[in-house]
Please model this.
Amino acid sequence: MTVAVFGGSSGIGRACTERLAAAGTEPVAVFDLRPGDDPPTGAALVRAVDVRDEDAVASALGEAVDELGPLSGMVFAAGTARVTPLLEIDRKEWDLVLSVNLTGAWVALAAAARLMADAGGAVVLITSVDSARPVAGLAHYCATKAGVESLARVAALELGRSGIRVNAVAPGVVATPLMQPLLDVPEVRDDFLEHIPLGRLGAPDDIADTVAYLLSPAASYITGQAIAVDGGMSLREHARLLRGD
Model:
């Protein structure tokens, strides 16, 4: 049996890859737009894949199955973000964020579910607490994450009879390469910390632990859920990303 991680070479995806590989129960295949020269520890297969390309995703998953065995789990952690006021977002930027975050999730989920249809499996889609809480400057990002959570619920509804569980994990502020430019701004970092009851930023491993649980037999009766892993940040108003808003 095999687990596939899209966006598995950095940030949350990398942590998921290494956490799952360390468990040693199933080989882990990593698919990423830019895998880089430093593969995640324990990855059994690493390939460059654009999640927006249906044929490429299906081919990559088929290769993983051929080399490593039947697909039993999939994690979608690929994503991108831009901080831009709503009226300054152009169509190119809008399409980029939606095509990676939302269309990519659908492409990967559909391809994985077809391979799991006979024996069942588990899927986890990485979303964000921003899916339910408006953030000035993140209109396109928030819209995609809300869409991914809705996708997870519909997929859980439709695929349950095939033994396929689908859940979402919604991180809060996690120290990843994608977030680092924002976290390097002292007032933004301090504002985030003020909004997190547990008093610290999240680490990729915090998310990976929850993902591993949802893929495991211990979560065999959980499907269609979005679980926030945010240190309690969603209990408070979001920190400001646009100054002066």
